[in-house]
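Appendix B. Chain record.
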Amino acid sequence: MTNRRNFIKNISAAGLLSAIPGVLLSQPAGITFKPSVNSKIWGCLLHLSYNFWVEYSSPSPYRGYRPYLQLSESLWNDATETMAKAGMNMVVIDLGDGVAYESHPEIAVNNAWSVTRLKKELVRLRKMGLEPIPKLNFSAGHDVWLGEYSRMVSTQKYYEVCSELIKEVADIFEKPRFFHLGMDEENAYDQRYLNYVVIRQHDLWWHDFNFLVGQVEQQGSRAWIWSDYLWKHADDFFKKMPKSVIQSNWYYGENFDEKLTPVKAYLDLEAYGYDQIPTGGFYKKNDEGEKNIANTVKFCEEKIADPHLFGFLQTFWAPTTEENRKGILKAVTLLGEAKTWYDEHHKKS
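Structure tokens predicted for this chain:
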């Protein structure tokens, strides 16, 4: 234990941890964090990589590592075109090991996109009116995409690799406005079926979290995370979570009873003055959550003050493959319908 504490202290002194609280609360120079009232974010999460989990002890159609790119480029193109036609203005790209990074090509899966290919796609997306935002999930429960480095969590090598990847991705995306770090479901319950479990807790979780946020801010972007850490650690969250970090609380149900923990989290984040991009989801099985994003928009539009409500994000948790075509395109359509309601509602008010 003493050696571990000394190691953390040493790497902090060496300058690897730039993310001290006073720095995190400041706004990087040249970055405008708040969108105008008339430019709410209407975004969808699209998966280039879908390697989030190590092998499961119970069967699952999508969970577990695949050593190849799970991607239909035809569906990718159709999904982004549908987004643009539906009035979306942002696409969050889950990169993971779907890119052959120049800094760490060893983590790429077979048929991963080259950096050149990714840059070409970013140009296409921007021409369509879609702001591309990178996502690398550094949760220890969702980082199998890091390859061997996912088993080096909280070591000096881990910090070096994470820093290099964040810097390279920020360069590829030309200093994106936001950078999504994931950081969800790092707990024993959500990893109960994994064959290999890694959980950071207490000060170590915050130490690594602050490090990652600091690396993003050094690149001139604003960190963005999933907010479910709040659900079980509210006291710590509101004491330690920097206001500079964009919060995406997520909830995929249709019942917005304020007593439900994920629903109440929207209210708590608002009460403490955090900027939010509420996140909904749609699942193809039995059209589960068909009303979720519409209800999310209606609930949060009423409960979150306009300056803190940056917009909305829609998710579909399955690979971007042809078997998921109908569900992915429907998820986009559902967000478009919610946007139409929002626009009409604000015309009347």
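Further analysis of this model is presented in Appendix C.
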